[in-house]
Write a structure and sequence with these properties.
The chain is α/β, with parallel strands linked by helices. The protein has helices spanning 10-19, 24-38, 50-70, 72-77, 116-124, 166-173, 190-196, 230-240, 266-271, 291-306, 322-337, 356-367, 370-383, 388-411, 436-440, 447-452, 480-493, 518-523; strands at 45-48, 85-89, 127-132, 179-183, 199-202, 223-227, 277-281, 310-314, 416-420, 456-464, 467-474. The protein is built from 18 helices and eleven strands. Strands 1-3-2-4-6-5-10-11-9-7-8 form an eleven-stranded mixed sheet. The radius of gyration is 22 Å and the shape is globular.
């Protein structure tokens, strides 16, 4: 790929903006042009808002000009994301903009207010380009469950980008935006980050407000960043974090300023590893794991040890119960959250006569996709009379045990745990659609972190059969700064690795205006 504005990292864009070498409008125009020109074969976007984005870019340029005139201190006071493009998953409310959550039942809905993170991004001066594709109501691990068609992976257009934040991950990997926002309920940031070869972080539950975010499972959902390197993801997390009085689960904990002070030098970053202690949970090397994935993870662990860290095998004994526990708790909460979509207050509505119940059933029957219906039924069953104690209450008790496993290790002095993000590389369209349980296993390495409310980050650690592999760092609650420092240290220690120079191999194909869409590709026989 020839170097242009879209190939810059976000922190490089910020430096050029402050130096007056480029304008925010030029950055926005370059990314919008690339997204429009290359998205037919990717389908990472559900909407691109050129007019709004360019207006925000012009406002950012005006503030930059004023700061430049006021002197270096005023320029330094601007947020690192000032004037930098960002994409939002299409379940984040932007006043006056669409917010479908990937579902027909919200088609045509326009958000009447901004989400908290939208407000924070506006305060930071970031430029919002538009909304990205996703699995319907964030339920999925492949982005094949979007009501508006699947998203492809820029490394191989016949494969999935992961989910549910597949559009956000693919758009960053394809250089359509330098940064994007996703949500993570059971791995929906970290897993697509791994499959697309980028950085993705799920913060501690409560670090980022969920106000204005379409809910899936309220005790598990958390907003987080995607970027092409750790410094960029860290700056985006800094921008959207913080207490929000409108969200009772938003924690009154200060946002660490270290999030925008990660070392720029690879050697300085890698030096942080000396004397650190990492645990490698044996349970995360699950049966059936891709051998290439396991090999890359073992090599990454060896890099940590060679850089001066202490690495020990550890056990999280209740990990095997994580998948079953998650698929009781999450659908139960989803069945309650999705009850509001009744065709009366907003979104899709079927009106066929005077029978309200028939209209209600027709609205939900035609508005929800198969995976959403499946999870609503699972959740309703688990909460029904006679089954609440047997399933839901028991799952909550097991959830406590899963969290306790992590607590024991962190109390023993481990700085972080290191594990695979996904047991597989990106799989082909349709490979797991006929077997929901096999699809659910894609999140086996990520969902225990959500059950415990802990932060986790996925960073690229090499390739298996030419496709990206993700390394996951897991830390104690509120340790985002240290966790990002660990991820940046690994990034620094592997800065010279050959695999870091490899670009997504199907980028050039996206330039073809006649390329098949992901939906057409998914429908074709393998």
């Amino acid at each position: 790929m020839a170097e242009d504005l879209t190939t810059l990292l976000a922190h490089q864009m910020a430096a050029r903006l402050r130096a007056g070498e480029v304008t925010s409008r030029e950055l926005a125009e370059a990314h919008l042009a690339r997204a429009h020109a290359t998205d037919r074969g990717l389908h990472a976007w559900l909407s691109l808002d050129d007019d709004r984005a360019l207006a925000e870019a012009d406002a950012a340029d005006a503030r930059l000009a004023a700061a430049r005139a006021a002197g270096p201190a005023a320029l330094d006071a601007l947020h690192p994301l000032h004037g930098v493009p960002v994409a939002l998953k299409d379940l984040v409310s932007v006043k006056g903009g669409q917010c479908t959550a990937g579902s027909r039942i919200l088609e045509g809905y326009r958000a009447p207010y901004d989400a908290h993170i939208t407000e924070r991004l506006h305060e930071a001066g970031a430029v919002i380009l538009g909304k990205t594709n996703m699995d319907e109501f964030a339920m999925g691990s492949s982005c094949e469950h979007s009501a508006f068609g699947p998203t492809a992976n820029p490394w191989d257009l016949g494969r999935v980008p992961g989910g549910s934040s597949g559009g956000s991950a693919a758009s960053v990997a394809a250089f359509q935006t330098p940064l994007s926002i996703g949500t993570d309920t059971g791995g929906s940031i970290r897993q697509p980050a791994a499959l697309c070869g980028i950085v993705g972080m799920k913060p501690t539950y409560g670090r980022v407000s969920r106000y204005g975010i379409v809910a899936f499972a309220s005790s598990l959902d958390q907003v987080g960043p995607f970027g092409r390197d750790v410094r960029d993801a860290s700056a985006l997390l800094h921008a959207v974090s913080g207490r929000d009085e409108r969200d009772s689960t938003s924690a009154p904990i200060p946002v660490p300023e270290d999030l925008v002070r990660l070392p720029s030098s690879d050697d300085e970053a890698a030096a942080w590893l000396r004397g650190r202690r990492f645990g490698v949970p044996r349970e995360y090397f699950v049966a059936g794991m891709d051998p290439g994935v396991e090999a890359r993870i073992r090599e990454a662990v060896a890099v940590l040890a060679a850089s001066g860290a202490s690495v020990e095998e550890v056990s999280l004994p209740h990990t095997d119960y994580g998948l079953a526990t998650y698929y009781i708790v999450a659908p139960a909460e989803a069945s309650a959250n999705l009850a509001r979509y009744d065709g009366v207050r907003f979104g899709h509505s079927v009106r066929g006569g005077e029978d309200y119940l028939a209209d209600y059933l027709a609205t939900r029957g035609s508005g929800f996709g198969a995976e959403v219906k499946r999870r609503i039924m699972l959740g309703t069953y688990a909460l029904s009379a006679g089954y609440y104690d047997a399933f839901y209450l028991k799952a909550l008790k097991v959830r406590t045990l899963i969290k306790r496993d992590f607590d024991v290790l962190f109390e023993a002095g481990f700085d972080a745990l290191v594990a695979p993000t996904s047991p597989d590389v990106a799989f082909r369209f349709g490979d797991k659609m006929a077997d929901p349980v096999r699809m659910y296993l894609s999140d086996a390495c990520t969902l225990p972190v959500n059950m415990a409310g802990l932060p986790g980050i996925s960073v690229p650690c090499g390739l298996s059969e030419g496709l990206p592999v993700g390394l996951q760092f897991i830390g104690p609650a509120w340790s985002e700064a240290a966790l990002l420092r660990a991820a940046r240290a690994y990034e620094g220690a592997t800065a010279g690795a050959d695999w870091r120079q490899v670009l997504p191999r199907d980028l050039a194909l996206l330039e073809d205006p006649g390329i098949a869409t992901p939906a057409e590709r998914a429908a074709a026989p393998h």
